[in-house]
């Protein structure tokens, strides 16, 4: 995992722009603390910050392929290719010779052999750029599920790109960052519209797509998309196939030349990954799996059930640890940790945007900071809910039948409004968030691949699965990437393997819920791996602190902000709405209610100030 960036300009000699290229590259230092490199050519400047995971000595970047002593292609790459061993063997048989043991060189050679179509052969998580010196063309590629981020900003004579917006914003051609009405809508709506990157003029490479930039044009092309196929396997075969896929996926993702661990929440998803990793490491003679979880001081002892969480995580975490014999560490946080100004500033810096979910972002940031002191790679259970149908709103009739994204009306989660609940009425009318959500929803529905004759609940659940696999999961993957890479920690997500996603997407909903519960296929596939308590546990999302002192601290900071008089968000926010929220009882709605609005206001205001954002609506 690394940080990448670059600048292509067909009318400028970029060999004179070393300082700017270096400044762009320096913004990626958090993603790549181990090494750096900048490569310059007349019309291309390519930067790289490296997190060394595989072939520590040989995988330096930008990596150059030579022919007759001249560079023919230059690669800057972030991610992991899990089938690089097979690809290397195939390329060797085709006459390619390798100087390193890295997956980076395999990626570069695969491009030289198969051209742009080589992306279809890759199994992994990746975002990369290849400058072809022969054609003077740039190719940007992002993995199928969008695990790794990749942004770009077209220019009149080229393009800027980077793993994060900060790399692009570091180029003086951009000027002060600007957000227009659609950018604000995207910040507030909680729908994650593909390609939109909030900042005016900036885009994301869409998952499963390439972007090719030449002197004449910029061309976007899909190389993968979810497709619908008739599922002909019976239940027993389906459960067995899911298990076989998971065995292979986790085994591949254990490959690392640096310390590796798992994230363990005590839920079905992370527990399954941890148990499979434990077996895989044992088979490799690599000792016990190391695992980490997050907890809050006094959380288990004083836990109160809410609409989204029935139980605290820690008792289940410890059940799994005992069952599989993991080497485990609980990372215990308190409210002072969550309110630490430097930590909250770090969260905003990691995101480049005020799109977090309050203390859940801050605690994840602190969890990853603690883990990085022990491991460089972590396996996570992220995306199992999207793949197997695990969220509670999948089973809520109102959410399922709603003419919008289900999470927007789900009990508990549907109340989440963030700073949008505090907008000035005129601004709110101008933005028309309900209309923006409706347009985004219709666009998403139009993309859904359907089976002929599929009707009723099966048709609707295919739609809901698609919405989650292409929209909702992006919110969570972005969050996990930024919070982990802020500390140079690589997080791998086995449930995002495209083979598993494709297979389970086409399993009928009746099969995905054959035992009357959520994630039936995964539970059956992992039945021999986990303790009964975890197999029987109901879905519980990432924890949020229930300590009253945290909300008290948030409220006090908002009061100080209002009393200070110089509020960057003032032109957009209705102070009476803020005071009305402050007048409500504490814990009114908890982390997805009024507290979320106040947390959102603090982050939104800090973003406007620190990034000096111009709002143009």
Tell me what the structure shows.
The chain is α/β, with parallel strands linked by helices and 617 residues long. It is built from 23 helices and 19 strands. A six-stranded antiparallel β-sheet has the order 2-3-1-9-8-11. The two termini are 37 Å apart. The relative contact order is 0.12. It catalyses: L-aspartate + L-glutamine + ATP + H2O = L-asparagine + L-glutamate + AMP + diphosphate + H(+). This is asparagine synthase (glutamine-hydrolyzing). Residues 2-216 form the Glutamine amidotransferase type-2 domain. Pathway: Amino-acid biosynthesis; L-asparagine biosynthesis; L-asparagine from L-aspartate (L-Gln route): step 1/1.
The whole-number mean of residue pLDDT values reads 95
Number of strands: 19
Low-confidence stretches at least 5 residues in length (pLDDT < 50)?
Answer: none
Q: Quick one: overall form?
A: globular
User: What percent of residues adopt helix (DSSP H or I)?
Assistant: 40-55%
Sheet with the most strands?
6 strands, antiparallel
- Terminal residue distance: 37 Å
Q: Tell me the Rg in angstroms.
A: 24 Å
Number of helices: 23
């Amino acid at each position: 995992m690394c940080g990448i960036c670059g600048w292509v300009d067909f009318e400028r000699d970029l060999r004179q722009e070393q300082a700017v290229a270096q400044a762009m590259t320096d913004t990626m230092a958090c993603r790549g603390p181990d090494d750096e490199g900048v490569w310059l050519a007349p019309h291309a400047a390519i930067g790289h910050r490296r997190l060394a995971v595989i072939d520590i000595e040989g995988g330096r970047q930008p990596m150059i392929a030579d022919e007759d002593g001249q560079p023919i292609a230059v690669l800057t790459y972030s991610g992991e290719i899990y089938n690089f061993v097979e690809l290397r063997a195939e390329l060797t048989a085709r006459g390619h010779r390798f100087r390193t043991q890295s997956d980076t060189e395999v990626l570069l050679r695969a491009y030289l052999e198969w051209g742009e179509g080589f992306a279809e052969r890759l199994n992994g998580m990746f975002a990369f750029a290849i400058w072809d010196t022969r054609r003077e063309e740039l190719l940007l590629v992002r993995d199928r599920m969008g695990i790794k981020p990749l942004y770009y900003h077209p220019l009149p004579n080229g393009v800027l790109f980077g793993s994060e917006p900060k790399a692009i914003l570091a180029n003086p051609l951009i000027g002060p960052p600007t957000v227009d009405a659609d950018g604000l809508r995207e910040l507030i709506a909680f729908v994650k519209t593909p390609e939109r990157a909030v900042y005016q003029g900036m885009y994301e490479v869409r998952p499963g797509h390439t972007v090719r930039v030449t002197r004449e044009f910029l061309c976007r092309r899909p190389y993968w998309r979810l497709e619908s196929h008739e599922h002909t396997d019976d239940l027993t075969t389906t459960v067995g196939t899911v298990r076989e896929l998971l065995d292979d996926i986790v085994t591949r993702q254990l490959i690392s030349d640096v310390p590796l661990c798992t994230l363990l929440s005590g839920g079905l998803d992370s527990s399954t990954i941890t148990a499979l990793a434990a077996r895989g490491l044992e088979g490799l003679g690599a000792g016990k799996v190391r695992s980490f979880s997050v907890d809050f001081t006094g959380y288990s002892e004083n836990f109160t059930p809410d609409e989204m969480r029935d139980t605290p995580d820690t008792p289940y975490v410890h059940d799994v640890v005992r069952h599989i014999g993991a080497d485990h560490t609980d990372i215990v946080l308190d409210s002072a940790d969550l309110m630490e100004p430097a930590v909250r500033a770090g969260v905003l810096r990691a995101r480049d945007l005020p799109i977090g979910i309050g203390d859940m972002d801050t605690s994840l940031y602190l969890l990853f900071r603690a883990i990085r002191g022990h491991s460089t790679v972590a396996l996570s259970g992220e995306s199992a809910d999207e793949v197997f149908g695990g969220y509670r709103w999948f089973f809520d009739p109102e959410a399922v039948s709603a003419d919008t994204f289900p999470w927007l009306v789900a009990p508990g989660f549907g109340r989440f409004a963030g700073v949008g609940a505090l907008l000035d009425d005129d601004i709110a009318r101008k933005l028309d968030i309900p209309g923006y959500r409706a347009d985004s929803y219709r666009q998403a529905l139009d993309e859904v691949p359907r089976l002929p004759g599929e009707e009723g609940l099966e048709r609707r659940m295919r739609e809901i699965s698609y919405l989650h696999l292409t929209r909702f999961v992006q919110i969570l993957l972005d969050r996990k990437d930024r919070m982990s890479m802020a500390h140079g920690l690589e997080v791998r997500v086995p449930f995002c393997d495209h083979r598993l996603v494709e297979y389970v997407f086409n399993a009928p909903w009746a099969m995905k819920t054959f035992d009357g519960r959520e994630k039936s296929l995964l539970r059956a596939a992992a039945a021999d791996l986990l303790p009964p308590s975890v197999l029987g546990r109901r879905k519980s999302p990432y924890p949020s602190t229930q300590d009253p002192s945290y909300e008290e601290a948030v409220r006090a900071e908002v009061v100080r902000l209002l009393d200070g008089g110089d509020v960057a968000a003032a032109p957009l926010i209705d102070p009476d709405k803020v005071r009305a929220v402050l007048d409500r009882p504490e814990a009114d709605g908890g982390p997805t209610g009024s507290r979320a609005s106040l947390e959102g206001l603090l982050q939104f205001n800090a973003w406007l100030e620190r990034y000096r954002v111009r709002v143009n609506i």
